[in-house]
Specification:
By secondary structure, the chain is α+β, with helices and mostly antiparallel strands. Helix content is 29%, strand content 33%. The longest helix has 27 residues, at 219-245.
């Protein structure tokens, strides 16, 4: 069954994300790293890192980040680069280091500050969002507007952007599965067909397939595909739990061809939370081969959603739009939360 979904990211300003990461700052003379603020639209974080490395004359592996940000939203996040103490005076926060604008996408890099530690994946506290939900019926828009500020319990699914680029096949998890099976040829072919920025590298690769993942890609990129496989496994497990624990209070749906089962009320999500508040999850790094680390992920997350504006949708005549603001912990998907916000009664 396919249920009605809100339209996200119809315009660039419809989906804005600001990273929540507090880093200790110091003076330039005692710093080992420089922090840069990256504003972007239309680029993945990994693309932006390669672009920044080229502009700054650094290897991409020397540029640190704490989390990945989607390419189809206006996003802000910090990067870290090595810094030689005393090499420069403290820069102004507004200092622009590099800028690029192409049709349909842009990015800008600014000075943020100096510190002692590089940024690494896993340090991110969370993200702040301002999102426009479009193509809503009047009843849904009125219900949300009348609440003003509401508490949302939602199932903590990985959403479809985890599994492929916008408009492309949602098969990143299959690359990861092939890597774990050491089927290097299948992994390269799957990657080549994804339409991802690194797909071109896979298409043009002429050496042994394994060497593509060992030396042809940033290790963090390879680890992402392993993580996508782990995410697909986790989604399947939590989907089964929803079906088992609240069968009458949930609905099966398909989003971009991927299966989900969503509770249709906060009570349904609370039932799942009571039954199983977290599930095992395997994290991956890549050091010539997969390196596993066992952890857990919460099945249900709670956030406060504030309705900022509501009214007729100028992009979809006869329909309504609602703009909302909220915070999410690191690893949560705003689109998964908003699908459930619209669905829950």
């Amino acid at each position: 069954m396919t249920i009605g979904n809100p339209v996200f990211k119809h315009r660039p300003g419809d989906f804005r994300v600001r990273e929540n990461l507090v880093v200790p700052l110091t003076r330039a003379r005692s710093a080992a790293h420089r922090y840069l603020l990256l504003h972007k639209y239309g680029y993945t974080t990994m693309e932006a890192v390669r672009w920044a490395a080229d502009r700054l004359g650094l290897p991409a592996r020397d540029i640190g980040y704490a989390g990945l940000k989607d390419e189809d939203g206006e996003t802000e996040q910090l990067l870290s680069v090595p810094f030689t103490a005393g090499a420069a005076e403290d820069g102004r926060p507004e200092e622009e280091l590099a800028h690029s604008a192409e049709p349909g996408r842009w990015l800008r890099l600014c000075h943020y500050g100096y510190g002692h530690e590089p940024l690494t994946v896993g340090r991110l506290n969370g993200n702040g969002f301002r999102v426009v939900l479009r193509d809503l019926d009047e009843a849904t828009a009125t219900r949300l507007e009348s609440r003003g500020r509401l508490s949302l319990l939602f199932v903590n699914y990985y959403d479809t952007q985890r599994f492929g680029v916008p408009g492309g096949p949602k098969r990143t998890h299959l690359v990861g599965e092939a890597l774990l099976n050491e089927d290097w040829g299948l992994a390269r072919r799957e990657l080549a067909d994804l339409g991802a920025p690194e797909s071109v590298t896979a298409q043009r690769w002429t050496g042994p397939d394994r060497e593509l993942f060992r030396h042809g890609l940033d290790a963090r990129t390879t680890a992402f595909y392993l993580a996508a496989h782990s995410s697909a496994v986790w989604n399947a497990r939590v989907r089964d739990l929803v079906a088992t624990n609240c069968p009458e209070n949930s609905v099966e749906t398909s989003v971009d061809g991927l299966p989900y089962r969503f509770p249709v009320s906060g009570a349904g999500a609370a039932t799942l939370l009571t039954a199983r508040h977290e599930l095992p999850y395997t994290r991956y790094a890549w050091r010539d081969r997969p390196v596993e680390r066992a952890t857990v992920r919460p099945t249900v997350v709670q956030t406060l959603v504030t309705v900022e504006r509501a009214g007729p949708d100028d992009a979809f005549p006869g329909r309504h739009a609602v703009e909302v603001g909220f915070l999410l912990p690191s690893g949560c998907y705003a689109t998964a939360a908003m699908r459930q916000l619209v669905l829950q009664r």
